[in-house]
TrEMBL record:
The protein, known as: FtsX-like permease family protein
Membrane topology listed for this record: Multi-pass membrane protein
InterPro entries in the cross-refs: ABC3_permease_C, Macrolide_Exporter_MacB
Similarity-based family: Belongs to the ABC-4 integral membrane protein family.
Organism for this UniProt entry: Myroides indicus
A cellular component annotation (GO) from this entry: plasma membrane
Cellular compartment(s): Cell membrane
Keywords: Cell membrane, Membrane, Transmembrane, Transmembrane helix
Gene Ontology terms, MF aspect: transmembrane transporter activity
Length: 177
């Protein structure tokens, strides 16, 4: 409260000084503006918050899209390998083994995507830092978060295709063309 009062006094004093410098009469309106630093900071923080929310929304949409794409890739793999699944089941492979194979493939594909994405992101940021002459710091927390996220996305995306593959009837799977 004391700080606010001091700021208001400073603004009032600056306004009076500028009016004197510009020779404004009491009837004339100010032909200048005074902006307080705390107002500018508040405005900048609002803009940063808006950008953060937008970035999170874009990230969530991207994660949703990538999880759907990964699940579709694995569903196509199950469909293309239906005969292989039928042969393995007729030779005694358990549902758990089939599910584990497709689940593992999904996690490996997801993690490879995470590794490639991280490499490309770090490389791009490093090159940009060299061009714009700013210090480059490897964002370890973001990298760890990205790997955790890709793992979770791969686990979620791999569940349905793995279960679908494990539930295929061997006789029907062998008939599949």
């Amino acid at each position: 409260l004391l700080k606010e009062g001091l700021l208001n006094q400073a603004v009032d004093q600056a306004t009076a000084d500028f009016r004197n410098i510009r020779h404004l009469t009491p009837a004339q309106k100010n032909n200048f503006g005074i902006e307080r630093s705390d107002d500018m900071i508040r405005s900048m923080l609002k803009q940063v918050t808006t950008l953060n929310v937008a970035a999170w929304m874009i990230g969530m949409i991207t994660i949703l899209g990538s999880s759907i794409a990964l699940m579709n890739i694995m569903l196509v793999a199950v469909t293309e390998r239906t005969k292989e699944i039928g042969i393995r089941k007729s030779l005694g492979a358990k549902r758990n083994t089939i599910a584990q194979q497709f689940f593992t493939e999904t996690v490996v594909i997801g993690q490879l995507g995470g590794i490639i994405g991280t490499f490309l992101g770090i490389s791009s940021a490093y090159l940009l830092s060299q061009v714009l002459h700013f210090t480059f710091v490897i964002p370890w927390a973001a990298i760890i978060s990205a790997f955790i996220t890709t793992f979770v996305v791969a686990v979620i995306s791999g569940l349905y295709p793995a279960l679908k593959a494990s539930k295929l009837d061997p006789v029907e799977a062998l008939r599949y063309e």
